[in-house]
Write a structure and sequence with these properties.
Blueprint lengths: L4 H6 L1 H16 L6 H25 L3 E3 L4 E3 L1 H28 L3 H20 L3 H19 L6 H32 L4 H21 L1
Antiparallel strand pairs: 1-2
Helix pairs in contact: 2-3, 2-5, 3-4, 3-5, 4-5, 5-6, 6-7
């Protein structure tokens, strides 16, 4: 099924963040200039954040991809918040990366991928979509936590974060399975209706007994 233009516009911020993340990874073999990489990273974060405003002013709130994405005031607020934070992270990380002699391209790409995952998570109208956004953000964050590979504390923090995130992911998936078993859906909007129906059926069963 070909997505509608409105659907593509509503996921434009995540698309831009991911595209610039891939571009930064492809640029690394060709340039080691930190200023060039920082420019592309800042450009990607700004364009992705601006795309949120563009999507809101162009088509307004609504759903996308058959209800998997909900683009509303809540989603717009967190898109802007996440985008602004990512811009600040890119701006202040340049001197740190230079001081620690760390690669810039992968760092900025991971920041952009994590930003895209948070954007998907804030827009998710379906539990499995939220899970995908959570994993996009988490996996990038695991790597960022252990980015200083030569430092023992960095490796330790990455391992602890990975173990904590793995257990949290397992509990989250188990919760999704339980919710689906009770309501028959993982869509947040449909879960409310299904929950009411289950409650009425339970009440009628109790009354019959």
């Amino acid at each position: 099924m070909i997505p509608r233009p409105e659907d593509l516009i509503r996921v434009l911020p995540e698309t831009i963040w991911c595209i610039f993340g891939v571009v930064l990874m492809l640029l690394q073999p060709f340039t080691r200039n930190r200023h060039v990489l920082s420019f592309f990273a800042i450009l990607g974060t700004i364009l992705g954040t601006s795309a949120t405003i563009y999507a809101y002013t162009t088509i307004g709130p609504g759903t996308a991809f058959n209800g998997l994405i909900q683009f509303d005031a809540f989603s717009i607020f967190f898109h802007l918040l996440i985008g602004l934070v990512s811009i600040l992270v890119v701006l202040v990380s340049g001197p740190y990366l230079e001081r620690e002699n760390l690669e810039s391209a992968e760092f900025f790409a991971l920041v952009l991928f994590a930003t895209a995952g948070m954007g998907v998570l804030s827009s998710a109208q379906e539990l499995l979509t939220a899970f995908i956004g959570l994993e996009m953000s988490s996996i990038s964050s695991y790597i960022l936590a252990g980015y200083r590979r030569d430092t023992l504390k960095s490796s330790e923090s990455a391992m602890k974060y990975f173990l904590l995130g793995s257990f949290a992911t397992a509990f989250f998936l188990y919760g999704i399975a339980l919710v689906y078993g009770v309501t028959g859906t993982t869509n947040l909007a449909q879960m409310g209706t299904a929950d009411s129906n289950v409650a009425r059926e339970f009440a009628s069963t109790q009354a019959a007994q």
